[in-house]
Design brief:
This protein is mostly helical and about 200 residues long. The chain has a single domain, classed as dinb family like domain (Four Helix Bundle (Hemerythrin (Met), subunit A), Up-down Bundle). It has 7 helices and 2 strands, in the order ααααααββα. A two-stranded antiparallel sheet has the order 1-2. Strand 1 and strand 2 form a beta hairpin. The longest helix has 24 residues. It is elongated, with a radius of gyration of 21 Å. InterPro entries: DinB-like, DinB/YfiT-like. This is DUF664 domain-containing protein. It comes from Flagellimonas chongwuensis. It holds the Pfam family DinB_2.
Length: about 200
């Protein structure tokens, strides 16, 4: 009987326990979801009640309007989520762990910092691809919802998946917070438009 019980115990142990380090840590998940949620809600708050005239207003010919910022976010967020899925599909690469260029708490402030201006590449320049701001916003919110649902349900070890950004290596958890920071950066840009002295009043 003992001979039968020992292999059964082995099966039960390995059948009902998960290998350590193969899932996203709950604290990491909470950290990611906090920034994804807060950046989305900040954007919705800024956009709430704006007229077409206000959405299309530009402080000067070289600036983006609020509507153009929304379109840019829709275009880039789609690309970013593809990068997340690619990093997962590429599989774990522990050798890159020492190549990370930022601590977690540096990601949001660094990306959202409006004192450093960065010109986007041509594919992500707003050009009216969505037809209207409402359509661009709907697409953006759908993409963000997809990403948030992925984070909530994934069993992928995002700390052991990596992506290369222009400034260096990030893990997939940091990449997702980078996405949140990128949205926050452009929401701050929208607020700068609203604060312009010639911004149309209701």
């Amino acid at each position: 009987m003992k001979k039968l019980l020992f292999p059964l115990a082995i099966v039960l142990f390995f059948g009902f326990t998960k290998n350590p380090g193969t899932q996203l840590d709950p604290k990491d998940k909470e950290w990611i979801m906090k920034h994804l949620t807060e950046s989305r809600e900040h954007m919705k708050q800024v956009l709430d009640g704006l007229s077409d005239e206000q959405l299309d207003y530009k402080p000067d010919p070289t600036s983006w309007s609020i509507a153009e910022n929304v379109e840019h976010l829709a275009l880039t967020e789609k690309m970013f989520i593809e990068s997340v899925h690619k990093s997962v599909a590429d599989g774990p690469n522990p050798s890159l762990k020492d190549s990370l260029v930022f601590q977690d708490d540096q990601i949001m402030p660094m990306v959202a910092d409006r004192s450093q201006k960065v010109k986007t590449s041509e594919p992500f320049e707003p050009s009216g691809q969505y037809g209207s701001t409402e359509e661009a916003l709907a697409a953006l919110l759908a993409i963000r919802q997809e990403l948030m649902e992925y984070v909530e349900t994934t069993e992928d070890d995002l700390r052991n998946r990596y992506a290369q950004l222009p400034f260096g290596t990030v893990d997939a958890a940091q990449l997702i917070v980078f996405i949140a920071g990128h949205m926050e950066r452009h929401v701050l840009q929208m607020e700068e438009v609203i604060e312009d002295e010639d911004f149309p009043q209701m």
